[in-house]
Each structure stands twice: as C-alpha cells, then as structure tokens.
C-alpha cells in the first residue's frame, strides 16, 4: 500500500463524518482498525477503501444500533444485513411505543388526571377502520399542525371523526353502542391515534374516555389489551360544518361502480384526470394534458380525504363508465392525488358524486351508506 494513498485521522474523519474520538474508539474495540499506525508517533492512517464501511457504521449508529449488532450487519451479506436492520427497527419502534404508554401514565399520575365519563363504547374493528380511513385526509405541515390531527365529536347520537388537508376532507360518523352522557369535541394527535389502530382492531369493544389532555382508548374485553392515551392538540380545527352547510345544491349527480371508477383512474397515468359527466351516456375519464392552476382550498384552511384499500382489485374498463348521471352535462378536472384517495376510501360497491360545477367541491359518498363522506377540490378547467 502506498503511503500517498493513506489519510491521517483528521482528513478521514471529515470525509466520513465520524469524529476522530469515535474513530479511535472503533479502532480500540476492533470494529474499524486503521490501515496503518506510525510505530513512533502513534498516528493513525486510513485507506480510501475504508470510507464506505465507516460511513455505513456511522449510519447504523445514527439509528441507535448497538455496536455488536452493527458489527454483525457490516459482516453480513445484503439479505442478512437487511433482515438485521429490520429487526433492529422493529425493536426500536416497540420500545418507543412502550415508552409512550409509560410516559402517558406518568403524566396522568403527575397531573392527577382521571378519565371523565365515557364518551362512547365502539366496536374496535369498526373504530380502527374509521380512524384509518379518515386519517388519510391529514397533512404534515409544521405551520399548521392541526392538519395532522383527527377531530373527534361525541354526542349521545353519534361519534364523528373528521380530518382535512385543505384539498380533501373526510368525515365518518359511527353509532356508539353506549352513547355519550354529555357532548365532547377536540382534535387528537393523528400519529398517536394511528399507533393505536392495531390494538383497536384486535378488541371487540373499545371504551373512549375523555381526559384533561386528550382521549383514553381502553379495550374492555381483553385482559392483555393496552389502553392508549392520545394527546389533544391546542390549535382550533377548521369550521368544516359551516363549510358543508354553505355548499350549494348539486347541479349534477352520478352513481358509478367504485371498482370500475378506480380502474379508469389507474389506467390514466396523467397527473390530472378529466371527467365528463354526460346524462344518458355515462362518465368519460381521461388524462388531462394541460396544466391548469389549482383552485383555492376548501376554505381558509381545510379539505378532503384519503383511502382505505378497496375490497377487490379494480377493473380497468375501456370506453365510458356505465353510470347513472342526472342533471347538467359537466366537465371537471382533478389532481389524481386528490381524486384517487377519495374514491378508494368510499364504503360499498357504488359511489355517488354530487357535483356543483367545474370549480366547486365535489361530495363523494357511498350510494347506500352515508356514514363516510368525502369532499374533493377540482383544479381550474383548461381554457
């Protein structure tokens, strides 16, 4: 090996992003010995071939992998390395969830927080599905954290979940097995609710209780079930009910088979999808080649939903979709990322669309089940 190829520890540290002290530690534990050590000065030198291993080691340590596991990954083939990394991530996530639950209990004990009267008793699998469906309408925006939350409203008659990302809005209403004694509403952290879904799905009945700082979700039928405490967000949720109340009456209505509609959307690879609703002639779906400007969002801050997987694979039709269309002939254009989730979230085999014009929100819901409603904003029609 030529000495001219070797790098002193300082330049090697800068090239790999590992501090000199960490390089000395890795060398002392035998994980990353230098290529050469000067016998007189003790200076350590590294070869360029060691850069890739050192960078990978740094990245493994950045995900909090123990040294012994990192050494196993570095010495493994690609498939085994992937397995070891996935196993480490699963352990970290499991530990994080346990820490979150314990921290919630500590905070509740410190503040003397006790659950108030139960808001609702709900079937766990139904609540899990509703949370997943509605949370697809959330968005991660640091300036508007409320868009990452799920708004919960409990009344004696209904338990309603709502979310919006300003271009879509999803709301689903569940009928509680045990009604709330008093009305309650608040916006709950979406990530914490999302983490509760696997537990909810395994529970026949879940009791939803309000606390001073959020919601407690407690399985009532399993001794091994973990309760979840989900944090209340302080920001005010957009006034979506006013927006819904102010929507004009639809001028066009269409009932379309959901799977055929999904298949038509997926058969068009364009960024935007144009729809032509023609009474007596069905619905024509094609990619929009132009680049129309986006319409304003569904209000000062909100809008519509995302999706849960369809019950069966969508069929890719050719020609216009068979649909019952009444009212005015209408052409309207959507971003595919807005329309596809709204369609795939719908409950039931048939989808009903209430349309109000090419630049107004469209309401999408099941043709025979109205407990999940979605609004989607179109883009401006091309001129």
Question: Describe it for me?
Answer:
The protein is an alpha+beta fold and 383 residues long. The protein has three domains: 3-75, Multidrug-efflux Transporter Regulator, Chain: A, Domain 2 (Orthogonal Bundle), CATH 1.10.1660.10; 114-237, DNA Polymerase III, subunit A, domain 2 (DNA Polymerase III, Chain A, domain 2, Roll); 246-376, Proliferating Cell Nuclear Antigen, CATH 3.70.10.10. It has ten helices and 19 strands. A nine-stranded antiparallel β-sheet has the order 8-5-6-7-19-18-17-12-15. Strands 4-9-10-11 form a four-stranded antiparallel β-sheet. Helix 3 crosses helix 4 (67-75). The longest helix has 34 residues, at 78-111. The chain is extended. The model is unreliable at 291-296 and 300-311 (pLDDT under 50).
What is the end-to-end distance? 69 Å
Residue windows where pLDDT falls under 50 for at least 5 positions = 291-296, 300-311
Described by the principal axes of the CA atoms, the overall outline is extended
Give the helix level as a range of percent: 25-40%
One letter per element, helices H and strands E, the order comes to EHHEEHHHEHEEEEHEEEHEHEEEEHEEE
- Count of strand segments: 19
Structural class label: alpha+beta
Mean pLDDT: 85
Write down the CATH topology of the largest domain.
Proliferating Cell Nuclear Antigen
Number of helices: 10
Largest sheet properties: 9 strands, antiparallel
Mind telling me the C-alpha Rg? 27 Å
Work out the count of structural domains. 3
Examine the secondary-structure arrangement and name the CATH architecture of the largest domain.
Box
Looking across the biggest beta sheet, what order are the strands in? Answer: 8-5-6-7-19-18-17-12-15
CATH class of the largest domain: Alpha Beta
Please state roughly what percent of the residues sit in beta strands, choosing from under 5%, 5-15%, 15-25%, 25-35%, 35-45% or over 45%: 25-35%
């Amino acid at each position: 090996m030529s000495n001219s190829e070797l790098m002193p520890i300082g330049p090697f540290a800068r090239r790999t992003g590992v501090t000199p002290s960490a390089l000395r530690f890795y060398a002392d534990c035998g994980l990353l010995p230098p290529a050469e050590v000067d016998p007189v000065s003790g200076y350590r030198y590294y070869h360029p071939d060691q850069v890739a291993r050192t960078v990978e080691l740094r990245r493994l340590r950045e995900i909090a992998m123990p040294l012994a596991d990192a050494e196993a990954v570095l010495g493994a083939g690609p498939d085994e390395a992937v397995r070891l990394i996935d196993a480490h991530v699963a352990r970290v996530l499991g530990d994080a969830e346990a820490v979150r639950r314990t921290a919630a209990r500590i905070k509740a004990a410190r503040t003397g927080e006790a659950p108030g009267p139960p808001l609702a008793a709900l079937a766990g699998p139904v609540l899990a599905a509703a949370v997943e469906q509605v949370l697809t309408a959330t968005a991660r925006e640091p300036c508007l954290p409320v868009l990452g939350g799920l708004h919960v409203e409990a009344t004696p008659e209904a338990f309603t979940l709502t979310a919006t990302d300003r271009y879509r809005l999803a709301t689903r209403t569940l009928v509680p097995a045990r009604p709330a004694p008093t009305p309650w509403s608040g916006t709950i952290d979406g990530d914490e609710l999302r983490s509760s879904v696997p537990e909810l799905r395994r529970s026949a009945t879940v009791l939803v209780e309000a606390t001073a700082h959020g919601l407690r979700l407690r399985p009532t039928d399993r001794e091994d079930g973990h309760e979840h405490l989900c944090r209340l967000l302080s920001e005010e949720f957009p006034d979506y009910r006013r927006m819904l109340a102010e929507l004009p009456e639809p001028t066009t209505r269409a009932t379309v088979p959901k799977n055929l509609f999904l298949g038509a959307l997926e058969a068009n690879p364009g960024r935007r999808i144009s729809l032509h609703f023609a009474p007596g002639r069905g619905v024509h779906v094609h990619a929009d080649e132009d680049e129309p400007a986006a319409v304003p969002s569904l209000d000062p801050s909100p809008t519509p939903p995302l999706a849960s997987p369809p019950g069966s694979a969508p069929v890719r039709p050719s020609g216009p979709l068979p649909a019952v269309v009444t009212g005015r002939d209408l052409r309207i254009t959507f971003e595919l990322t807005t329309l596809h989730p709204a369609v795939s979230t719908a409950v039931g085999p048939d989808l009903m669309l209430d349309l109000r014009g090419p630049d107004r929100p469209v309401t999408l819901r099941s043709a025979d089940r109205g407990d999940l409603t979605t609004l989607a904003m179109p883009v401006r029609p091309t001129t």
